[in-house]
Amino acid sequence: MDAWLWVLAAVLVVWIGVATLDRNGYLPDYVGTMGPMLTVHTKRGRALLDRIATPKRAWRAWGNLGLGAALTVGVAMFVFLVVSALNIVQNPPAATSPVSQPRNVLVIPGVNDFLPLDVAPEIVLGLLIGMLVHEGGHGILCRVEDIDISSMGVVLLAAIPMGAFVEPDEESQSEAARGSKARMFAAGVTNNFFLTALVFLLLFGPVAGSISVASGAAVGSAFTASPAAQAGIGQGDRIVSVENESIANNSEFDAALADSATRRVSVGLASGETTTVNRSLLVRAAPTAGPFAEIGRNNTVTAVNGTPVYTRAGFADAVTNRSIAALTVRNGTSGETTTVTGPIGALAVVQVDGPTAESTDLPTGEPIVITRLGGRRVTTYDDVSAALAGTEPGDTVALTAYVNGSAVERTVTLGASPDADVGYLGVLGTYGTTGLSFTDFGVHLYDAASYLDYMSGNVGDGGLAGFVRAVAATLVLPFISLVDPSLSFNFAGFYGWNLNFFAVEGALAGLGGATFLLANVLFWTGWINLNLAFFNCIPAFPLDGGHLLRTSAEAVIARLPIDEKRRAVRTVTTGVGLAMGVSLLLLVFGPRLLG
C-alpha cells in the first residue's frame, strides 16, 4: 500500500477516536477539535512572554519596522494576485500542466507533485518552526502592547505537531490603540521574514559551503530501452571514466562521447563497477511535419544508405556529403524495420513578412529543408546560425532548400535580427537534423553544479540586493525545471539518489551525511517561512493581512469627512477580501475550468 494511504488511514482512525471521545465528554477542557486537527490550549507560558517582552521600546521599534514591511508586501500580494488572476482569465494555461493541478497548491509531501515524501520530516519541521515563530511574535507583541492572552497552544494532526497559536483576549484587543493592534498583527510575518534571512545566511554560508559536487557525470535518469539502460546504468549512477579516461564532470562526459564513433564504450561507475555500453541512435525528438515525420520518437536509426550507424558522430559523418539520405529505422515496440528517404538539412518554416518571404517565392507556413546557406553545407539548424555569423542586414546569401521533395536555389536579402547584431533570415527552425535529435547513450544528465549554486546562493551579485535575489531564487527550486528549461529535474533537497552526486568537505566534513540533513532543514525552514509570511500578508480575513487592512482602512477613513465610517471600513475590507478570494480561486481552479 502507498505510504500516504497508511498515513491517511492512521489519521482517519485517530480522528474517529477523538470524535468519539469528544462526543462522550471524555476530552479535557483544554483540548479542542477542528476536523482532524486537535488544538491543545494552555495559559502557561504567559510569564515567559512577559519577561521576553520587557524591553518594550525595542520591541515596538521592531514592530514598526515589521509593520512597514508587512503593509508593503500586502500591497504587492494584492497586485500580484489580481494580475495573475486576470492573466489566467485572458490566457488560461493548459489544464494538464503540473502547476495547474489543485493538489499542487497544498504543501503536503507526497500529495504535491513537487514535494517528495523523502523530505516530509524536514518540511513538517520547517512548518512547525515557522508557526512557532509566527505565533510567538503575536504573543510577545500582545504583552508589549498590554493586550491580554486568552490562551495559546499547539495544533496537532493526529499526534503530529503542525503549528501553534496565540489567542488574544477579544475585549483587551478591542480596547488597544490602533497602532498597537497593527504592530501585533504584523509581528508574526516580521518574525517569519527574520527567520528566513537567518536560516538562508546559515545555508548560503557554512552549510552549503561545505558541500561540493562529486567528480564524474551524474545520471539523473536513463531512457527506457536505451543503450545505457540495457547496460544496467540508471538513476543515481555516477560515471567516472570512459574508455579508462577519467571524467570530471558532465561536460567532459559529453565531449568524450562526441569525439568517439566507436560503438562499444567501456564506462566506469563510482560504485567501482565497469560496464560496456553498445551505443545506438535512439530518436529523442522527431518532427510532426516534414520528410521524416513518420520516424517518431523512441525508435532507432540503424543505417544511412545501407551503411550501419551507431553514434551521433557516425551519423554526422554519414550524412555530411549527402543532401538526400535513406534512413533505416527500427521500431522500438515491434522491432520491425522501415526505410525513410528525405533531404538532410535544417527543418524550417518561412515566416510571413520575413526577409526570406520578401526576397523569394518560397512558401510560408509549411516545412522546408535548408541544405546550403551562404555557400556552406547545412545539416542541422545550428549550422544556419553559424552561416549567418558575421553577416549584416542588407547582405545577400545564397540558399538551397528542398520544398515538397524538390531542390530549389534562391538568393535572400537579410534583414535586421531582433535578437543579435547579425543578418536575419526570417525562418523558424527545428533543432536537429531535418528535425531529428538523437542520443547514442541514453541518459539525462543531472546538473548538480547548478542546483548547488542555488543552494549556496551563488546566483546573485553579492551585497543585500544579491542576497535577496538569491533567497528569491530558492523559491523556484522545487519546480525549477518549469522555470529553467536547461534543467531537467526539480530540486527538493539532498536525498535519495541525488546524494551520490555531492560530497561533504571543509568545516562540516566531520558531520558527514548529517550535513545534507542540516542543509535540507535550513532550506525548507527558510522556504516555508518565506511562503508563510507572503501568504499571511494577503489582505483578506482571517489572515494577518486582513487585520492590517482593517486597521489601515480605519486609520484612513477616520480622517475623512464622511458619515457611516464603520460602513465605509466594512465596504473596503469586504471588497478587497472578495477580490482576494476570487483571485485565489482562479489561481487554484481557473486553469482546470478555463484551460
TrEMBL record:
Write out the annotated subcellular location: Endomembrane system
Q: Which SUPFAM superfamilies match?
A: PDZ domain-like
Example GO molecular function term?
A: metalloendopeptidase activity
Descriptive protein name = PDZ domain-containing protein
- Report how it sits in the membrane: Multi-pass membrane protein
Q: Where is the signal peptide?
A: none
Query: Taxonomically, what lineage is the organism?
Result: Archaea, Methanobacteriati, Methanobacteriota, Stenosarchaea group, Halobacteria
Q: Which domain of life is it from?
A: Archaea
Its cellular-component GO annotations read:
cytoplasm; endomembrane system; membrane
The UniProt keyword set, sorted, is:
Membrane, Transmembrane, Transmembrane helix
What InterPro entries does this protein's entry cite?
A: MBTPS2 (IPR001193), PDZ (IPR001478), PDZ_sf (IPR036034), Peptidase_M50 (IPR008915)
- Gene Ontology terms: biological process: membrane protein intracellular domain proteolysis
Q: Name the residues that span the membrane.
A: 65-89, 184-204, 462-481, 501-524, 568-589
The principal localisation class reads: membrane
Residue ranges of the PDZ domain? 205-273
What the entry lists under Pfam families is as follows: Peptidase_M50
